[in-house]
């Protein structure tokens, strides 16, 4: 059941984590864990069976792109859906994220509808795989 | 600063002329010789005076420049960082306070909507219910939907704190660099040999770490225009695979 999906939300701003968490709850997802950068997120990902990762890019410590690459390089995490939720807007960044295997890319500021759309798309392709 | 005493030899001719004017009782000649001696005296003094004045001026200018640099590096720049950090903290608190209230309002709206729906469902319309009460319940149910949508917008609007916070943080990083450079300048002004100044200059932010949000009015190079642009780029890439 999709509502039982386990989310990890990674952002260094606690307000943004809270906003995403609220949005996910509105969409019916209640199993949400938070982390404030890649360094704290990676051990959580390795330890817990998360179904989807939503991460910011620009964070002190380990940035989101590095976290994405670390996830794809880890045999057990390689297939984890990763949604980048960031203000980073350079074309080369989006290309790089895509090449690193990002599952979706949402630019901040974003709308609840956009987040839902991208999540649905990711979850649909996850179900098909 | 000590003035060089004048060389008496330089005044031998003028002294002789003065002496001869005094001896001859010639007032005009005396006056002439006296003026000549004063002129000779001044000609030696003026350059010396100018030199001293210039030196004093540059010492003063240097002193005030050093004092200004000291204040900048020691107080004003660190204060600027504290001010910016404080702004981030204030916006963070304000955003969290707003989110607290949004989270408190959500269940209240839901409860009102549920209550209205329950009454509308259970009361038999033909049972003689007051039309005004009926209208009120219908409107409450509708308003609750609108309120829920507004609360959701209110929630999303707090995303400004993340965006402004990221921008301010990049300015704080710049202020940190400025403080370091000013510190080096103070050392240079104090005569300490510093060769690492240029090497210590900030390196531009790299995109792998993250550049932060786009800012209107600042050249944004090859940035995308928005979500549609990103979606187009990604599907283009996916099609090209």
Structural commentary:
The complex is a heterodimer of chains A (129) and B (241). A 5-stranded parallel beta sheet of chain A has the order 2-1-3-4-5, sandwiched between helices. Chain A starts with 5 loop residues before the first strand and ends with a helix. In chain A, 46% of the residues lie in helices and 18% in strands. In chain A, helix 2 packs parallel to helix 3. Chain A is globular, with a radius of gyration of 13 Å. In chain A, helix 3 links the parallel strand 3 and strand 4. The longest helix of chain A has 17 residues, at 112-128. Chain A is α/β, with parallel strands linked by helices and 129 residues long. Chain A has one domain (2-128): Response regulator (Rossmann fold, 3-Layer(aba) Sandwich), CATH 3.40.50.2300. Chain A has 5 helices and 5 strands. With 241 residues, chain B is mainly alpha-helical. Chain B has one domain (8-193): Helix Hairpins. Chain B has helices spanning 12-24, 27-122, 131-157, 160-189, 227-240. In chain B, helix 2 (27-122) runs antiparallel to helix 3. The two termini of chain B are 81 Å apart. The model of chain B has no long low-confidence stretch (mean pLDDT 84). The A-B interface holds A 11, 13-16, 18-19, 22-23, 26, 57-59, 63-66, 86-96, 98, 105-112, 114 and B 92, 95-96, 99, 102-103, 152, 155-156, 158-163, 165-166, 207-214, 220-224, 226-227, 230, 233-234, 237-238.
């Amino acid at each position: 059941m999709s509502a039982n999906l386990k989310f990890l939300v990674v952002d260094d701003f606690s307000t943004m984590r809270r906003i995403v968490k609220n949005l996910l709850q509105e969409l019916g997802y209640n199993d949400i864990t938070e982390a404030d950068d890649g360094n704290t997120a990676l051990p959580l990902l390795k330890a817990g069976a998360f179904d989807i990762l939503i991460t910011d890019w620009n964070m002190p410590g380990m940035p989101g792109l590095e976290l994405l690459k670390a996830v794809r390089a880890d045999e057990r995490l390689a297939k984890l859906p990763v949604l980048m939720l960031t203000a980073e807007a350079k074309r080369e960044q989006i290309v790089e994220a895509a090449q690193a295997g990002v599952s979706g890319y949402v630019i901040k500021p974003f709308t609840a509808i956009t987040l839902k759309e991208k999540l649905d798309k990711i979850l649909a392709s996850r179900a098909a795989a | 600063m000590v003035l060089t005493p004048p060389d008496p030899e330089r005044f031998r001719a003028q002294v002789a002329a003065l002496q001869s004017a005094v001896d001859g009782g010639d007032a005009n000649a005396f006056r002439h010789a006296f003026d000549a001696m004063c002129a000779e005296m001044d000609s030696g003094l003026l350059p010396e005076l100018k030199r001293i004045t210039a030196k004093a001026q540059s010492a003063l200018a240097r002193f005030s420049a050093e004092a200004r640099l000291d204040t900048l590096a020691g107080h004003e720049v660190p204060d600027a960082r504290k001010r910016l950090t404080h702004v981030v903290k204030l916006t963070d608190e304000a955003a969290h306070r707003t989110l607290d209230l949004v989270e408190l309002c959500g269940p209240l709206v839901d409860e009102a909507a549920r209550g209205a729906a329950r009454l509308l469902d259970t009361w038999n319309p033909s049972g003689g219910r007051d039309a005004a009460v009926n209208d009120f319940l219908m409107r409450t149910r509708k308003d609750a939907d609108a309120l829920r949508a507004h609360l959701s917008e209110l929630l999303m609007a707090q995303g400004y704190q993340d965006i402004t916070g990221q921008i301010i943080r990049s300015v704080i990083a710049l202020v940190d660099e400025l403080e370091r450079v000013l510190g080096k300048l103070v050392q240079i002004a104090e005569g300490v040999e510093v060769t690492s100044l240029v090497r210590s200059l900030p390196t531009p932010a790299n995109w792998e770490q993250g550049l932060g949000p786009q800012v209107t009015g600042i050249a944004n190079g090859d940035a995308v225009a928005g979500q549609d642009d990103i979606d187009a780029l990604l599907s283009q890439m996916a099609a090209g695979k």
